[in-house]
User: Fold these one by one.
Assistant:
Number 1:
Amino acid sequence: MQRPKGTKDRLGEELASIRHVERVMGDVFKRYGYEEVETPAFEPLDLFTKKSGESVVMQLYAFKDKSGRELALRPELTAPVVRLYINQLRSAPKPVKLCYFGNCFRYEEPQAQRWRQFLQSGTEIIGSARAEADAEVIALSDEVMGELGLSDYELRIGHTRLLREVLTHAGAKGSAQDPIMRAIDSREEARLRAELDRAQVRAGDEKLLRSLVALRGSVKVLKQVEKLVAGLPKAKAALKNLHEILEHVRSFGVEKFTIDFGIARGLEYYTDLVFELYVDGVQVAGGGRYDELIELLGGDPSPAVGVGFGIDRIARALLKRGMIVPRERLDCLVLPSSEEMVSECLKIAGELRRAGLLVDIDLMGRKLAKAIAYANARGTKNVVIVGAKDLDKGQVTLRDMDTGSQERISRRDLCEKLQAGKGS
């Protein structure tokens, strides 16, 4: 039987890389003061349709349960975490800093690096409208990539409010802006052309919008932006906010980034700062500020900013670079020299495991020579051979599988000996 289309089995080096990425991220999240939370794999359908509309259902695994409730497998984790905040944490001291890991599901055509089930992690800061919060999320993202050894990643930073203020000036207001923002994010010229025509954006406003979207580069491009939006006070305020965020980003020690006003993000709930991270041209993370989402989902108005990471893609980037995480080797395999020694082997294995060592036993009843060959195939560091004559003297035989050398040692000293060689 084949696995479902758009899914994958994870094992071996790939799974080891994924677990490594999760451990590194978890350590960074803790250092920044985030508390881990976990949400259900499925949520009420309207949690995901309130902002995006009913058309988004086509991209979801949506269904009715046996009581007729409309549910959906979560396509992302920000909205579920916001729902958790509204239900249980709205009275907590601000800001509330949360992190998470989990599988997400989207019903779309599988393609390179895009799956119907995928692993996501992320962080959210709820309750702070200050530019320092935006900057911290970027700094945290930078530190994650650095800790993983992916310091050659590309960080692109934009600001959706700047674009939306230009669209407002052009006569496209509220939800009428969303199709245009999605078209900008797609970077498809024909799609953008169609949406601008549909919204009847004037030629002058279109020229201004296109000029902004095309701007990419260092902080020097912000001088050009100042000239372009000189007549739009609210757009100037958005630009000032971006200046402040970037100042704090540099204070955190992040110097390598690209200003890119072509970033609009695929989710409409972003309101101000947006940013994306790329490795080898593949997007591996993205986030921004979403000050309206909490109120939209039924909570009291509250500012918020966050980032989501694509764990599968990051793990794949590590493997592509040959940054393979070594699988932890067994400290030893305990083998009986005869059937009569099996019970004693089980006792020894239990003692060593309780001491924190990685220990296995032969569960196939192999002859000793074949059991040692099995240990070699497993990549085990050592083999402990338990024989009747040795045991009468209170000893066992310890064989180093890397060198082939072996020695008789006291059973009482076995655990200490193995622990001493654990780091080697």
Number 2:
Amino acid sequence: MSAVNTAEQLTAELDIQAIRQQFPALAQLHNDKPVCFFDGPGGSQVNQSALDAMISYLGRYNANLGGHYFSSQVTTELMAQARASAQTFYNAASTDEIVFGANATSLAFSFSRMIANTWQPGDEIIVTALDHYSNVSPWVLAAEEKGVKVHLIKVTEPECNLDLVHLASCLNEKTRLVAFTYASNTTGTVVDVEGVVDIVKQHSSALTYIDAVHFAPHGLLDVQRLDCDLLVTSAYKYFGPHLGVLYAKQSVLKMLKPYKVEPAPDNIPFCFETGTQNFEAMAGFVKTIDYLAGLAGPYSDKRSGLEASFALVVEYEQQLARYFLNALQKLDGVELYGLSSAEQRTPTFAIRFAEHSPEVVVKALAKQNICAWNGHFYAKGLVEQLGLADKGGVIRIGCMHYNEIDELETLFSILAKFQSR
């Protein structure tokens, strides 16, 4: 399919201008110039409905759980709504399978400690070189404490995907956990998650822990279809506030002993949520899921809305990806790491120029209010395997569904200055 060339073609299904109006950050000027946010993989902008909900909660109902007075009851109901929204977002079987935390990294450290208590010396676990290290370090540290062997799965090149042959070769009856990503936060490559879960189940009885933080804004999640044991996201990556949202099968939660304050509730899932939770973030989270479910118009139920909305998001973001990849091919002296097609990827791209360091390019973009990143993005295993750890990593350009073709045109007008002459 040829690259899309006009904004009118790109916005045939999603009303991008209406969408952009729901994000106040997109309309701002910095130094009297517009801004372009291509830093979504590091944290998306927040929709207005989420902002309003957080202000309303903090300004009128700020209270803790369990009281007999009105604001405490509002808080209790809010938490129930947030859990129901997360259940719908993940398509979990029960709200009791949802655990909230500060962020995905904190939840990974917390659950790695609890899950590691079920391991014995001589057991084995598997992590991958494709992952953000928030889904590597917690498990490696826990394994070191328990005398458990760690396998690091390699990345295939040039597509930067998981090496499934290597994965299968490392699985055995001693494997207790396999932690892997749904999509690379650096190259945008989407992993065959269902295939990975199937391979794990064929060769072991290990738990599967999926980091879906990068994938969540770009595709529909369905934990029942995946049949994974645990899956985590951070809401600030999909247009909401800072809030970690973990799914775990009830059978997994029942086998774990939570680290909690003694008088705190023993019932699942509350026993896994330490301290006072971020209720204002939950208020924003509820509205964020409503926002996502409404992108395709009104539907009779929220899950159907999410299915329709993400179908449009995927289609639109693939068109953005085609435009990006087509424009990139016209530049000399630039290398793309990861898939060169728009399919099986998110619209996140890792590139390097032959004659300029990633930092130099990103600083030049920043001067023109184009927000992008350079470095390793905590994907330590990936940049090491690619031989880029001591070379400044890569430039990461990440599109979201609120980005538009005009922004990509502006981006490439500047990138063209760095191509080889």
